[in-house]
Amino acid sequence: MSKFHPLTVAQVKHETRDAIAVTFDVPPNLKDAFQYQQGQHLTLRAMIDGEDVRRSYSICSAVQDDRLRVAIKRVNGGLFSTWANECIRPGVTIDVMPPEGRFNLPLEPESDRHYLAFAAGSGITPILSIIKTTLLAEPNSRFTLLYGNRASSSVIFRDELTDLKDQYLERLNLVYIMSREPQDIELFHGRITEDKCRQLFQHWLRVENVDYAFICGPEDMMHGVSAALQEAGMPKERIRIELFAASTGKSERKPRPVTAEARHQTDVTVVMDGVHASFTMDKDKESLLDAGLRAGIDMRYSCKGGVCSTCRCKVLEGQVEMDVNYALEDYEVARGFVLSCQSFPVTDRIVVDFDVHE
After folding, report:
1. In the predicted model, is pLDDT for residue 353 greater than 90?
2. Domains in the chain and their CATH numbers?
């Protein structure tokens, strides 16, 4: 799973002025490796000005489409997103890691559910995959989408969403919320905030009639929507969240005191793709991921911000402290899973396994 594969770009479509949809040509021998679930993402790698740069982008195709496609929105100052929007063309080859991520739910043809989704900006990317896949896989289920943008011109996949609405008139409720463009209904004007959600739940949508909710967008929106949903009675375990990696700030680690009698170094063993590799690192100075990369191990990673879960692994022996976690569910942490990019050794010996998934 940690291996990158060179994939050729088959198509590039400009969705907005600063967002492109990139479709990859997957050769027959890699079809199995690149089978994906709705809501998953791909890690892309490119050498940009001599630097190995990796970023994760959500798949925006339905599972039934059998088409590997991601959306890349240009971020101000974003090294990879700027390069992608300027340089990716059909025929270009990009290193791509097989799909990862758990921003989804198991689907059952006989289910009769009402799903709710909140998206902002490019947060529509995994949500689009989830909506299309779900409506096809569960003929009796329906979806309500609230999609926040600045204005109509910045709506990614607008035509595709319109076509979906026309196709599923009775099963898809599509609502745009614009922050800089007046709307016919004042309730749908502004930003998607906790207070806005309270208004929506009071006057327009009954949360008790919703089975599951998906949220994808900036951190403040994520927390606000989740809080409002729980306040309205939705259990936390029925809320699925996917956070923008670009929306998280870089947190500074606060050094923890090490007693004089304690060892200052940790012996680390990494299991990945069935191979064992070992190295020694200082405690409380760098993450397991950074230390492993410095030791020459090709560790699996993408955002390094505790968001994408690409570096997820399980601690088999020893103990670590995790600074930031936006990607793992509570039950995963309870089972010993950590994000290696945010994990710092506490004990003198650590064994982590990247091959364990459950």
Report:
1. yes
2. 5-100 (2.40.30.10), 114-247 (3.40.50.80), 265-353 (3.10.20.30)
